[in-house]
Specification:
Layout (H helix, E strand, L loop, with lengths): L4 E7 L4 E2 L4 E7 L5 E8 L5 E3 L8 E7 L1 H7 L9 E7 L10 E2 L2 E4 L2 E4 L4
Parallel strand pairs: 1-8, 1-9
Antiparallel strand pairs: 1-2, 1-5, 3-4, 3-6, 6-7, 9-10
Length: 116
């Protein structure tokens, strides 16, 4: 079984997938506490499945280590980390929703959206 959370990182400055980028997933609790859930590296296609099979409803943070990625390529970058917060809502009965949080980046800009 795979997680229902995936990501895909594309490096727009090269027109290529962002290989071997470190990414971490955490839960943000109402108290403000941040609890680490999982981490990993993108594959050769810039993709990563992250976390458990199911995420409980709540607020989550996915953090992309963009600075280290560009530093490894000897490229100066403005954003050392990109953290995207998102909300997981309760699933309908019998449903296991797939969440996809892609990132399109360059050394000085990034964008994201809820993918499918």
């Amino acid at each position: 079984m795979t997680t229902h959370l995936t990501t895909h990182v594309l490096d727009a400055s090269q027109g290529l997938p962002a290989r071997s980028m470190s990414i971490a997933l955490a839960r943000l609790h109402d108290s403000g506490e941040v609890a680490h859930i999982a981490d990993g590296l993108t594959d050769d296609d810039g993709r990563l499945a992250l976390g458990p099979e199911l995420l409980d409803p709540g607020t989550y943070l996915i953090t992309f280590a963009t600075g280290a990625y560009f530093e490894a390529q000897q490229v100066d970058a403005f954003y050392p980390l990109v953290t995207v917060s998102f909300t997981v809502t309760p699933a309908q009965e019998g449903e296991t929703p797939h969440l996809h949080v892609p990132l399109l980046l360059s050394p000085f800009a990034y964008s994201t959206y809820r993918g499918s």
